[in-house]
Specification:
It holds the Pfam family PdaC. By secondary structure, this protein is of the alpha+beta class. 23% of the residues lie in helices and 24% in strands. It has two domains: 136 residues, Heat Shock Protein 90; 103 residues, Actin, Chain A, domain 4 (Alpha-Beta Complex).
Length: 275
């Protein structure tokens, strides 16, 4: 099992065992066209064009929000992927700005103090293979509650086709993956729960925080230890899915097995190897 490394704003690092040995939102409303009657709206603090290639880090603070977003050089150097990530950046920034503006208005109308909202997304490389780039993002959000919430995102970039693929789409179905990997995940999860809680999970418990979690309910990562093929599967489980907020995030790493290879879709099977 892979240990967890807590990043700034409680973001989590990509499991080291998954990295080769060498990670949606509503579309932002379109801006109106400038005319003599319609002045052009002011640019946001970071409205300069994205760099061509390389890593990108955006940090923007206003009187209502703090926005941070980054991705690594491998992503910025991959044709098409940087544009996809930049599009996500703008969507997340616009969503945060809108929520923060509404939150400040509601706080003012109700006589409450307003605490600055925040959003941080940090993409990292899980595996960089000849035909694929697997990425994971740690995400942290604060919308004025008692504490920030955090979670994950993940994609695999098909370098040949120039498009993103959800990791679960590499398998014949979520149910097929759960049938093979689910029991191992549940066993590992309950063992870790016992360590953190100081007592075993009660057999037959109907408590939501004692239930097994299916692989596709967490953040599914495709990793590699050889830099040539996917031979590891990671599962990241955010707070409230497997336990209360205080228990933090659960994170697991499993080797590919012949049984798991059997539930990989035929068109993707050559990208995988068992260990």
């Amino acid at each position: 099992m892979v240990s967890m490394l807590i990043r700034r704003f409680t973001l989590l690092a990509v499991p080291a065992a998954l990295v080769a040995c060498t990670p949606a939102g509503k579309e932002a409303d379109p801006q109106p066209t400038a005319t003599p009657e319609t002045p052009q709206p002011p640019a946001t603090p970071d409205s300069t064009p994205a760099p061509l290639g390389g890593a990108r880090t955006v940090s923007e603070r206003t009187d209502t929000y703090l926005f941070e977003y980054s991705y690594p050089q491998a992503a910025g150097d991959t044709e098409g992927l940087a544009g996809w990530l930049d599009s996500r950046l703008e969507q997340e920034r616009q969503r945060l700005a809108s929520r923060a503006a509404r939150g400040r208005e509601e706080a003012r109308d109700n006589g409450f103090p307003f605490n600055t909202y925040s959003s941080e997304t940090a993409w990292e490389v899980v595996a960089d293979l000849p035909g694929w780039l697997s990425l994971s993002a740690g995400q942290s959000f604060y919308y004025g509650g008692a504490h920030p919430n955090y979670g994950f995102d993940t994609i695999v970039w098909d370098k040949e086709a120039g498009e993103t693929i959800e990791p679960i789409a590499f398998f014949t179905s979520p149910a097929a993956l759960d049938e093979v990997l689910g029991p191992r995940l549940c066993e590992a999860l309950n063992a870790e729960r016992e360590k953190r809680r100081g007592q075993p999970v009660e057999e037959g418990s109907d408590d939501t925080f004692d239930a097994c979690v299916k692989p596709d309910e967490g953040n599914l990562l495709l990793g590699s230890s050889n830099g040539q093929s996917f031979n590891r599967i990671g599962i990241q489980i955010a707070p409230y899915l497997a336990g209360p907020y205080a228990e933090g995030t659960y994170e697991f790493d499993f080797p590919m097995t012949p049984e798991l290879l059997e539930v990989v879709r035929e068109e993707y099977r050559e990208a995988f190897t068992a260990r």
